[in-house]
Amino acid sequence: MILLDSVKVTKKFGGLAALTDVSLQVSAGEIVSLIGPNGAGKTTFFNLLTGVNAPSSGEIYFSGEKIDGLPPHRIIARGIARTFQNIRLFQNMTALENVMVGRHCRTGNEVISALFRSRKFYQEEKLIEKSAIERLSFVGLLPCGNELAKNLAYGDQRKLEIARALASEPRLLLLDEPTAGMNPKESRELKGLIEKIRQQGISVLLIEHQMQVVMNLSDRVIVLDHGVKIAEGKPKEIQSNPQVIEAYLGASAPIE
Amino acid sequence: MQSKKFFLKVVLVLLLGIFPLLVQGGPFAYATRLLGIMGLYVILALGLNLTLGLVGLFDLGFMAFYAIGAYTSAILSIQGWGFWLSTIAAIFVTVLARMMLGAPVLRLRGDYLAIVTLGFGEITRLVLNNCDSLTNGPKGLPRVGESIGSVNLVGIELADNIHFYYLILSVVVMAFFVSKRLENSRIGRAWTAVREDEVAAELTGVPVTRVKMLAFATSAGFAAIAGSLFVHWEKFVTPESFTFWESVLVVSMIVLGGMGSLWGVILGAVLISGFPLAMQATLGGSFVHYRYILFGIALIAIVIFRPQGLIPSKRRALELEEEKVEAEGDPK
Predict the structure, then answer these.
(1) How far apart are CA A128 and CA A130, in angstroms?
(2) Packing angle of the helix pair B186-196, B208-234 (nearest 10 deg)
(3) Is the per-residue pLDDT at A33 higher than 70?
(4) Residue B302's pLDDT band (boundaries 50, 70, 90)?
(5) What are phi and psi of B243, to 5 degrees?
(6) Which of B54, B177, B186 best probes binding to A when mutated, by most A CB atoms within 10 angstroms?
């Protein structure tokens, strides 16, 4: 079943074409990596998927419904959650509260019910707390649940972002360079975590620079360069694709 | 620790409860009135804390909504509406005005928001000053021959300072609990998330503009209640009570006390509104004119040496127990 379907998506910033006619698909239960040199348009593509920007042309479908142009909070309610290249946590809230905010789109208590504290209010608060605790323990952060997010170690902050995204019950999780700045041990742990997320039936679209992670984890790899999709295929095929090697290393000079 | 804190709070409330009775009739009876005025500022500060403290919206024209509440209540009271009814109407009108301002403005970034709210504050004051047919301009309300009705509470007519003191104190307590309940709720967490990182909040599923509007509207309710209490107590209102300077004072109360911290905001409001009043009472003669210089110096010192505020806000710790069954980690 095709979960995400991007059809000829183009994004222009002024005269600059950040993405040109990018078409790609992610099926349910798949882990797909999006790679490419810096400035290739990977994060821009995530921004289009999550509603930060609207595409200049082209369409994006999520489980058959058109989602381009929807505001971000609507898209996450449909089931696409993400993390950020530069960690964006709610610094002065506790780890647990960060994850609780992630439940916002699945819950409904408003100002009035918060004031009068009906039984429904307490029930929902309890459920929010319970499922936030579950996500925290899923990523292994339960012991520091009451720490402020800004006080967590760098690697833990990355995991907390994932827990917060998972709290919205996504069907597709977008991870933007989750292992950036991590040491090999932390990267391995994170690889395990992504596997575990897939086992929950959640598809993962991954931007990643560490080839070890990409090649081990992905079912498919898609390569962007200068906003154009230049290759797509199994990790093995991508590794030996001359166009990809050229994009990363430059064309070999003609031998005289 | 917890019980000691609770004990302190009970003592504080009891002290505030019996204080006016102790000084009644004595030379310090006037203190009851001063405390009542400070109470109005506490209500205002708690109201602005919802937007400035929790959501981080830099609002420099909060007094405009105090003014709209006060004038609405005054005009209706003169028409013969009772206190309770005119207060409810004032809340309605003020929240509506706030939402009409919020609809275009809340999409703006912080610094623009400050400029627009500042402008709105001044415009409101100028309209009150010039719209003679409705507000009697700078001469204020009520006009000669009219009067603002009195407040009736279960058959007792509230007339003295001491009556209003208790009425205001009970509203302060209510405002405190309302703030507390909002803070520890789904909406309160969304507010704080917006303050911390607006973009991340939107992408985590919080409809940012909508929750900002909720905070904006709720805070106006606080201002309207304070305004209605004010006119029914003073029995008189002019545009001069709602200057830009007053808006700045309320902002400083929150910054001084600690953004988003309820006890901090209360302390800030008490100190900042109490300081000039106390100075006026204690400093004699020409020295009174220098009170705002002293006040300014004290404010600068606190902001330099304690930038997080006098009582910084703390996050609530929650139980981290997990049922055994889920320990394997099932996020469904």
Answers:
(1) 5
(2) 110
(3) yes
(4) confident
(5) -80, 165
(6) B186
Q: Give the model's confidence band at B332: pLDDT under 50 very low, under 70 low, under 90 confident, else very high.
A: very low
Global pTM exceeds 0.80: yes
The minimal CB distance from B322 to the residues A82, A108, A133 is found for A133
For residue A253, the model assigns a pLDDT of 67
**Most confident residue range from A93-97, B302-306, B316-320:** A93-97
Asked if B187 lies within 8 A of A124 by C-beta distance, the reply is no
Q: Select the more confidently predicted residue: B321 or B30.
A: B30
Identify the top-confidence range among A229-243, B272-286, B312-326.
A229-243
- Name the minimum distance, in Å, from the CA of A122 to any CA of chain B: 10
Which positions 208-247 of A are in contact with B (Cβ < 8 Å)?
A: none
User: For residues A48 and A18, is the Cβ–Cβ distance under 8 A?
Assistant: no
Q: In what order do the strands lie in the sheet with A80-82?
A: A80-82, A172-176, A203-207, A31-35, A220-225, A228-233
How far apart, in whole angstroms, are the C-alpha atoms of residue B309 and residue B265? 9
Q: What is the mean pLDDT of chain A?
A: 93
Among A8-22, A81-95, A103-117, B74-88, the range scoring the smallest mean pLDDT is: A103-117
Structure confidence at residue B285 (pLDDT): 64
| Interchain contact, B329 vs A93, CB within 8 Å | no
| Whether A73 and B208 lie within 8 Å, measured CB to CB | yes
Contacts A–B by Cβ distance under 8 A: 144
Residue from B314, B107, B201, B329 nearest A104 by CA: B201
The residue in chain A having the minimum alpha-carbon distance to the alpha carbon of residue B326 is: A134
Given an 8 Å threshold on Cβ–Cβ distance, is B322 in contact with A200? Answer: no
Residue A162 has pLDDT above 90, yes or no: yes
Residue A134 touches partner B, C-beta closer than 8 Å: yes
